[in-house]
Design goal:
- 3 copies of one chain form a homotrimer.
- By secondary structure, chain A is of the alpha/beta class.
- Chain A has one domain: Ribokinase (UDP-N-acetylmuramoyl-L-alanine:D-glutamate ligase, 3-Layer(aba) Sandwich), CATH 3.40.1190.20.
- Helices cover 52% and strands 15% of the residues of chain A.
- Chain A has helices spanning 2-15, 28-38, 51-57, 70-85, 101-113, 123-130, 145-159, 194-208, 212-233, 237-250, 253-259; strands at residues 18-22, 41-44, 60-64, 90-93, 118-122, 162-166, 170-174, 177-181, 262-264.
- Chain A is globular and about 45 Å long.
- The first copy, chain A, starts with a helix and ends in an 11-residue tail after the last strand.
- Chain A binds chain B through residues 24-27, 29-30, 66-70, 96, 99-103, 137-140, 189-193, 234-239, 241-242, and chain B through 16, 18, 20, 25, 28-29, 32-33, 36-37, 41-47, 49-50, 53-54, 57-58, 241-250.
Chain lengths: 275, 275, 275
């Protein structure tokens, strides 16, 4: 598998796909930096006057509701429709779904309108979207990815899209296909917006790989490996963030070959048998 | 005193209190990172549709007017009211009060509506709020904390709240009680938003310590010590910012015991007799 | 020339001019940090209720359309008018002009209303503003500065302002005067917002140097040298960004004297004869 991941990275570095983000204020800078470090070309644009134009020239559209306000929802819908019409892949991150009714309802409205190619979220958000009354504390996950697995499966089935759930183990689900990514480091949740960065990077992979299941898996592998490399050099979340960007920038084929830890999932009982 | 500071840090790391921030665009990322590094769980949300829900599940509410616009004022009021009703502590940072009439008036309006638990600001802002016609240049302080001391006292009395004034020496005032924190480093004002970070962190301490005077003091001690540790490793404000986050993440009881420099203030003539 | 650059830096460090930015969400934090590291005092304010007051007390106004929305255009116009009336220098960065009609039209509208002192942009944006139908991909430049040279000349002539075009070689144009700055490093475009940082820093230099052609040249020299110093210490764009801020903070007269690489341009055939 490492060859396929590397192939996508080379394509991103060579083609520098434009990734159009309508995302939250907290992570605009850090996700733009991650996309640039990886080799993609980020643009942030949210005005209703231009989102259709921008989505139309992009290689992928990333929608993230992290600091939602009413006027942005319209722009998200416009951009998603424009992207869908031109078969431009759409990655949706329902940040904080379940924390307030406003967020949950907005995601359901966006999903009713246009189907994203990939939903990328943490376990709590995935549970909130498919289980009524699930409780979420803010934007950080309080559920394990395992706990969200069944919810993710039903979400993928209902929306006929790929679902990518981040956590200590990442789960990527597409129809009957399920894949696990074990890469990553426990210090990563202590840097704000690394979940949102996973979403943005998933957009970059979706821009160069027409198989969204693969794109979602490859993105989580690269996120996790960059986090591992960074954690070896970091003394805390501040230095982790900087080394994470450097790791994305410098990542080599042998980094991937040497560190990749993944498994297809045929049976849920396999989940805890890490390699 | 270092035991009580450490006790609060342990509570933050164990309970990971949700801190709801309605704050400015400049510092959303850096204050979220500081809260995560310390062990709290930050959420940024500003839509009127959800701020009452979010404030209602939070351990503390942080209001910061740094990049104010009219539509946000309503959300700030809604969130402050919701928090006050449930006795959730509110920390208000009147960024740039005095620089424009719009900012000064907005702060007076917010204060007339709901009393915050703690007002945390720099000296120029505190002076602008209690002295008519005081001049402020932008958002950086041009007054010493000493110069703002009397203004802070009257502000604390009028609003029956704690006032925490940052500067080379920090002053924390509550009724007749006054406390000085000498910790900190002269390079800190060269990193944007470290004042706002002090405010956010004050929110985290207020979430775990029901005595807001103590919470405000402990927050300024931890800010100052993290800044000192970071400055020893930094070669400028860029590396300072990263090491500051690492220092929050790694701070130990012995760091606090070894570095804490504070004093109760009984007489204003003590101000310049640093330990 | 290095003496004149150094003279401006000393003035910035001594006077700490207030630079009022109406800028995009992505770079608010990073440009504020760059201005602080250099010695200036940044303020970000965008509310129509206060932009005239804020621009009126500033040493320079920086307008950047990177994450444009309709409600901000009015504030940009108000601030530009207020600054122009008081002869406060205005630096305009038309981020992403050409990428969507909305951006191009907004820049033309702003230019029709008030003449900025300096337009600072990348090559693609400059081309889009003076050549109808020029195509731009997002916010990253796909043209060389050389390709934008003639477009920049006509833009400077039409608007009677200085035009500063960043790229591998920077071109600064004022009437018949043209200047080249060769400083910089190839890793710099992999950090988001370093173009916007060049614009913000140009504001700081314009606040202390009444000759905007010199201010624009000095800013690009300092940007480039800080980038070179940072790149020698960096292992990727993450660490580059931190060392860049440290380099601005620590820059000495001998750094400038030892590294400055510039040339006046009398003939376009000189462009590629780098020193």
């Amino acid at each position: 598998m490492h060859r396929k991941v590397w192939n996508d990275i080379e394509k991103i570095r060579t083609n520098s796909p434009l990734v159009h983000n309508i995302t939250n204020y907290v992570v605009m800078n850090s996700t733009a930096n991650a996309l640039l470090a990886l080799g993609a070309s980020p643009v942030m644009a949210h005005a209703p006057e231009e989102v259709e134009d921008m989505a139309g020239i992009a290689g992928a559209l990333v929608i993230n509701i992290g600091t939602l306000s009413d006027s942005w929802i319209k722009s998200m819908s416009l951009a998603m429709n424009a992207a869908a019409k031109q078969n431009i892949p759409i990655v949706l991150d329902p940040v904080g779904a379940g924390a307030t009714p406003f967020r949950t309802q907005t995601v359901h409205k966006l999903l009713a309108d246009t189907t994203p190619t990939i939903i990328r979220a943490n376990a709590s958000e995935i549970r909130a979207l498919s289980i009524k009354g699930a409780k979420v504390k803010g934007v950080d996950s309080t559920d394990s990815a395992e706990a969200a697995f069944e919810a993710g499966r039903s979400l993928a089935r209902q929306n006929e899209c790929v679902v990518s759930i981040s956590g200590q183990t990442d789960f990527i689900i597409s129809g009957e296909s399920k894949y696990l990514v074990y890469n990553g480091h426990s210090m990563m949740p202590r840097v704000t917006g690394l979940g949102c960065t996973a979403t943005a990077i998933t957009g970059a992979f979706a821009a160069v790989n027409s198989n969204p299941f693969e794109a979602a898996i490859h993105a989580m592998i690269v996120m996790g490996i960059a986090g591992e490399i960074a954690a070896e050099k970091a003394t805390g979340p501040g230095t982790l963030q900087m080394h994470f960007l450097d790791a994305l920038y410098q990542m080599s084929e042998s980094d991937i070959a040497g560190r990749i830890r993944t498994a297809p999932l045929s049976d849920l009982t396999d989940i805890n048998s890490k390699p």
